[in-house]
Amino acid sequence: MTERVVPEPQRRRRRPTKQGVVLSRELIVETALRLVGQHGAEALTVRRLGAALGADPSAVYRYFRSTDDLLLALADELIGRAQQGWKATGDWRADLRAIGLRIHAAYQAHPQAALLAAHRTTGRAHEIAAVEAIIGTLRRAGFPDPEAVRIYHAFVDQSLGFAALDAAALALPPAAQSADLRVWQASYARLDATTHPHIAATADLLTADMHRSGYPFALELLLDAAALRLPATP
After folding, report:
1. How do residues 96-143 score in pLDDT, each as one tens digit?
2. What is the CATH number of the domain that holds 15?
3. Using one digit for the tens of pLDDT, what is the confidence trace for 33-89?
4. Rounded to whole angstroms, how far apart are CA atoms 234 and 145?
5. Please, how many CA atoms are within 13 Å of residue 149, restricted to the half-sphere of its CB?
């Protein structure tokens, strides 16, 4: 998709498409999420979107200036889904834990899209709301502003980093996913204790633990470290 801005008054299409639906930004983003989930990044084209929507591909330009504009909207949608239903409780650790786990879950629900979007900064409504919520949680807890910003940065990068890492694993073909997991049992668990004593001593634990995401425990480690930096008197 190339840059081609349609004047704002002309952007809305009110006539139904061939499938009997009226186009909207929300419908296009939802369709893009579905296509990327089914076919990967190569599905994010005007032609494929138009076919899926039952509309002329050029109609997408009424809502998005370019493929990147659509991708940023898709990224912001994932951030918005992570925030759905979240409410602050006043317990900063519980609130950050809930936000982090929601971010991770939202991206795992759309692994192909996560690979495209986890590293983007959208500057849009959902992302702005998330930044405000996290910074606000830290400041209300009593963290000085410089600490609040540093912890926010570490928290978000950790959340999105694990989201992208785990999404990449989920995006693998099922056979490759199974093969990767079998390595722990087929290779590591069979190493000789005389040459690899530490792996041999923990082989059963490694086999069990490496089958799940390390994010929840990593999140607790980050929260523990953050708590140590909280001033004694907020």
Report:
1. 999 999 999 999 999 999 999 999 999 999 999 999 999 999 999 999
2. 1.10.10
3. 999 999 988 889 999 999 999 999 999 999 999 999 999 999 999 999 999 999 999
4. 12
5. 2
Please name the amino acid found at residue 138: L
Residue 221: how many other CB atoms lie within 10 Å: 11
Tokens of 84: 């759905």
Same domain, 48 and 146: no
Exposure string of 126-156, with b = 16+ CB inside 10 Å and e = fewer, is: bbeebeebbbebbbebebeeebbeebbeebb
Q: How far is CA 43 from CA 75, 81, 113, 137, in A?
A: 16, 21, 11, 38
**How many structural domains are present in the chain?**
2
DSSP assignment string, 174-189? HHHHHHHHHHHHHTGG
Residues 116 and 214 in one domain: yes
Is residue 63 packed enough to be buried (19+ CB in 10 Å), middle (13-18) or exposed (0-12)?
Answer: buried
90: domain range?
86-228
| Contact by Cβ (8 Å): 84, 21 | no
**92 and 42 share a domain?**
no
The two structure tokens encoding residue 177? 């996913």
Residue at token pair 């990147």: 68
Q: Helix H segments across the chain? A: 25-39, 46-53, 67-83, 92-108, 111-117, 125-141, 145-171, 174-186, 197-201, 203-209, 215-228
DSSP state of 215: H
Based on the fold, state whether residues 107 and 205 are members of the same structural domain.
Answer: yes
Question: Would 76 be classed as within a structural domain?
Answer: no
Rounded distance, CA 165 to CA 108, Å?
Answer: 10
Q: Tell me, what amino acid is at 107? A: Y
